[in-house]
Design brief:
four-stranded antiparallel β-sheet, 15% helix, 12 strands
């Protein structure tokens, strides 16, 4: 059997996949494998640059409890994060500052930027799920939201 040589990017991807499975972290790529966003185990978001010897170079601080999920916009300008502190936060990647915050009634499980709203309606919308069995669509430009109650009675 012939050995296959892996590219540097593929080696990093394999290592990250192993870390993601082992540590149950959420990763997302930014700028063609130059940077990754890591859902760190405590209350920080780290942006790590593997071309600089895996040194941490940006920390986004603000959540007061464990981060559950992160996502980045298609144009890589913003990151959103959800947390056990019942908030969804929007971060500017360039300035590392918090741009917006949405306070919910319960733990946020999953956050995602809506590609549909961005491409078809030119709106910045995040949808997220919560421990209270709701799904929320939040337009963070005009701070409006719509909550869908997914609770079903037995």
């Amino acid at each position: 059997m012939e050995a296959v040589e892996l590219t540097e990017e593929k080696k990093i991807q394999v290592i990250l996949q192993h870390w993601a499975r082992t540590l149950q972290i959420k990763v997302g790529w930014i700028h063609e494998f130059d940077n990754i966003v890591v859902n760190y185990t405590n209350i920080r978001l780290m942006i790590d640059n593997f071309k600089l010897s895996s040194r941490q170079f940006k920390i986004l601080s603000g959540h007061t409890s464990k981060i559950t999920n992160v996502d980045s916009t298609f144009d890589e300008k913003f990151i959103c994060s959800g947390s056990f502190d019942n908030t969804v936060r929007i971060w500017d990647i360039e300035t590392t500052s918090q741009v917006q915050e949405y306070k919910h009634l319960d733990t946020i499980h999953c956050v995602k930027f809506s590609q549909y709203h961005y491409h078809y309606h030119h709106q910045n919308v995040i949808y997220f799920s919560s421990e209270d069995k709701t799904i929320c669509f939040w337009n963070f430009n005009n701070n409006t939201s719509q909550i869908l109650d997914c609770y079903t009675k037995p």
